[in-house]
TrEMBL record:
GO terms for cellular component: nucleus. Residues 144-383 form the KIB1-4 beta-propeller domain. This is KIB1-4 beta-propeller domain-containing protein. Its main location: nucleus. The keyword Nucleus applies.
Length: 433
């Protein structure tokens, strides 16, 4: 493989995702990226030509890599996998508070290894692969299942909120409601909790009764919570800065929303896409060419949005076995139908909730694949496509009537959602007003 600077770097197919991620992270920092590639190339050349490994060159190389990859824990993990043939690994630094724990930290690590309790002191946020969220009615507990590592993690803290209605995860937070309509935001990985009072609109006290999105204001601790309740056509947005809710009304029903490039985009049941203004409480709809003609029902739309790797994707669900995926080309303001997902994996939650992950092989998943929770069967399924074709996706839980009642078979642990704890969405008020 030859990079853009003309340096030849031999890699395996599974390693390409790591180098692409480094290039993405260091975008705009050409010197830093070039330094990384040169160091890797020089060290590999030296190792291949010297059968006897000495500590000094290895130590210097690790010091340079630690400096370049500092504060990028997910790149450190990718680096360790990339260099495993040479038995070179970097440690993920723990923060100052944890370093002061000394002996206690060591005990916690051992406990994590044996029992898989959520490892607060191991910078668990750096492990970026999605986790399946499990809910067990008998034990009244939530668990987190890692497919690539085949491990189940437990959290005593999050179990205290088991009785509340779960609506989804966003920016690493579980978003729930109490019977008094107030929202509870809980990050089980950082143990941060936030309470938002709500007397503006009614939220049905049941699982997934509203669509939610949590995004933080760029460069601050302020945040916005976007809520679409099944009981209302209006979109409701809470701003922590003003401590108030704002209702957004549109000619067509908004059915989904995502963050892309620090802007919140929405899509209606007619596949119209707009940008949500946080300052003026309106939605500016885009004039797009080749907008697909979609069908919709009163109870649920067949259109969903996904944001991934700088792209805005639109899912047009036509039946339980038929769907199309479009990419919005902002240079031509056009809907472009995709023949495959390419270097993207989709994660599905019934009914009709989607997440996406770029470079999935870096985290143990496959390209051009859909990982779906099959709620009626209490399983997860994997649908793989080839390089030039979409996965043949049979949508489980296509209708709410197909989903099991929460009390059904309560002795089992049920998969209810995917959690991307490393993704923290950010919005910039100045980009669109």
């Amino acid at each position: 493989m030859e990079n853009e600077h003309g340096i030849t770097l031999p890699v395996l197919k599974s390693e390409i995702g790591f180098l692409h991620e480094v290039k993405t992270v260091f975008h705009g920092k050409r010197e830093k990226y070039e330094e990384f590639i040169k160091d890797i190339h020089a060290f590999k050349t030296w190792m291949d030509n010297n059968h006897r490994i000495t500590r000094l060159p290895v130590k210097k190389f690790k010091e340079r890599m630690n400096k370049v990859l500092k504060r990028h824990n997910h790149l450190i993990l990718g680096f360790n996998n990339y260099m495993k043939h040479y038995r070179i690994t970097l440690s993920i630094p723990i923060n100052d508070d944890e370093q002061q724990g000394g002996h206690r930290t060591g005990q916690k690590r051992k406990k994590v290894e044996e029992n898989y309790q959520l490892p607060w002191d191991l910078n668990f946020m750096a492990f970026q692969e999605p986790l399946l969220v499990q809910r067990c009615s008998i034990k009244k507990s939530f668990n987190f299942f890692s497919l690539p590592h085949n491990k189940v993690y437990h959290s005593k803290m999050i179990n205290n909120y088991f009785p509340f209605a779960y609506h989804g995860s966003s920016s690493g937070y579980f978003i729930m409601t109490r019977k008094d309509n107030s929202f509870i935001l809980i990050n089980p990985f950082t143990r941060r909790k936030m309470l938002i009072n709500n007397t503006v609109f009614k939220v049905a006290y049941q699982f997934f009764s509203c669509k939610v999105l949590l995004a933080f204001s760029k460069g601050s601790e302020e945040f916005v919570l976007v809520v679409l309740s099944t009981n209302y056509d209006n979109l409701h947005v809470y701003r922590s800065q003003s401590l108030c809710w704002t209702a957004y009304s549109t000619p067509h029903k908004v059915v989904d929303f995502v963050v892309l490039n620090n802007i919140i985009y929405v899509v209606t049941d007619k596949a119209n896409i707009g940008m949500l203004s946080l300052k003026y409480a309106n939605i500016n709809f885009l004039e797009l060419k080749n907008t697909p003609v979609v069908t919709s029902t009163k109870s649920c739309s067949h259109v969903r949005l996904v944001s991934c790797d700088g792209y805005l994707l639109v899912f047009n669900i036509m039946s339980k076995v038929t769907y199309n995926v479009y990419k919005i080309d902002f240079s031509t303001m056009d809907y472009v139908k995709l023949e495959s997902l390419g270097d993207i994996a989709i994660f599905y939650v019934p009914p009709k909730r989607y997440y996406a992950l770029s470079n999935p092989r870096m985290w143990g998943y496959e390209n051009n694949s859909i990982y779906a929770i099959d709620a009626p069967c209490d399983k997860y399924r994997v649908y793989k496509g080839d390089n030039n074709k979409m996965p043949e996706f049979i949508i489980p839980g296509f209708k709410r009537s197909e989903l099991p009642h929460p009390s059904y078979c309560c002795s089992k642990q049920r998969y209810i959602d995917w959690c991307f704890r490393h993704l923290q969405y950010e919005v910039d008020y100045t980009l669109f007003e």
